[in-house]
Amino acid sequence: MLDVRTPGEYANGHIKGAGQLNFYDRDFEQRLLMLKKDQAIYLYCNTGYRSKKAATILIRNGYKKVYNLERGIMDWYRNNLPIVADPNAKPDTKNRMESDEYAALIESDKPVLIDFYAPWCAPCRKMLPMIDELSAEYKNTISIVKINADASKKLIKDRQIASVPYLVIYKNGELLFEHDGFIEKPELVSVLNKL
Questions:
Q1: 124 is catalytic
Q2: Catalytic residue among 124, 127, 161, 169
Q3: Do the Cβ atoms of 131 and 77 come closer than 8 Å?
Q4: First-last CA distance in the chain
């Protein structure tokens, strides 16, 4: 079993017995292909994106018994399956939110756009500048809040969020909009302008 996330992600919670190989390392593919071809290889990351790419590399190179945890460890955790954290792990706390804070946030009488993201998520990183721009552009009419999925694991589990990026807009506790995955600025602006 191989966790293809970063060492920090691995330290903050992984499946017991899993090895770790950082997908973002320059020599990732070279090290991945050192695995024995005759053994079953089980791959996972947070959402299944990086591990799917790793599985593709293995299959392309003749590996036959390759398995990917499709929705990653986020889904594993959401389903109450065991996760092991290293004793010296330093949990991410930036943009952390608890369930009670979230419940109060979505009750606002001003529309609230909430961006669930993760620091390791490529589409999230690509959207971050756009979210910051919109935060400035709509500061008088719409509250825009970023919530780090890694730092807010209990909230992610309570809300049954399966992947990031995930955007929602609430007003007075009513869900007005939700979008799973990457979204372009013009599409989001169109939604915000309707509000």
A1: yes
A2: 124
A3: no
A4: 47
| pTM exceeds 0.70 | yes
Catalytic residue among 2, 69, 121, 156: 121
- Contact (CB, 8 A) for 101 and 159: no
181 shares a domain with 140: yes
Convert the pLDDT of each residue in 173-182 to its tens digit. Answer: 999 999 999 9
Residue 97's DSSP bridge partners are: none
Q: Which residues contact 99 (CB under 8 A, 6 or more apart)?
A: 154, 155, 158, 159
Number of domains in the chain: 2
Burial of 19 (0-12, 13-18, 19+ CB in 10 A): exposed
Q: How far apart are CA 150 and CA 8, in angstroms?
A: 11
Tokens standing for 133?
Answer: 């721009």
| Amino acid sitting at position 164 | V
- CATH number where 39 lies: 3.40.250.10
Strands (E), the chain: 2-3, 19-20, 41-44, 66-68, 112-117, 143-148, 166-171, 174-180
Tokens of 108: 């606002």
**What distance in Å separates the CA atoms of residue 155 and residue 164, rounded to the nearest whole number?**
13
Point out the domain boundary residue: 16, 45, 78: 78
Say what percent of the chain tops pLDDT 70: 100
149 contacts 116 by C-beta, under 8 angstroms: yes
In a domain, 142, yes or no: yes
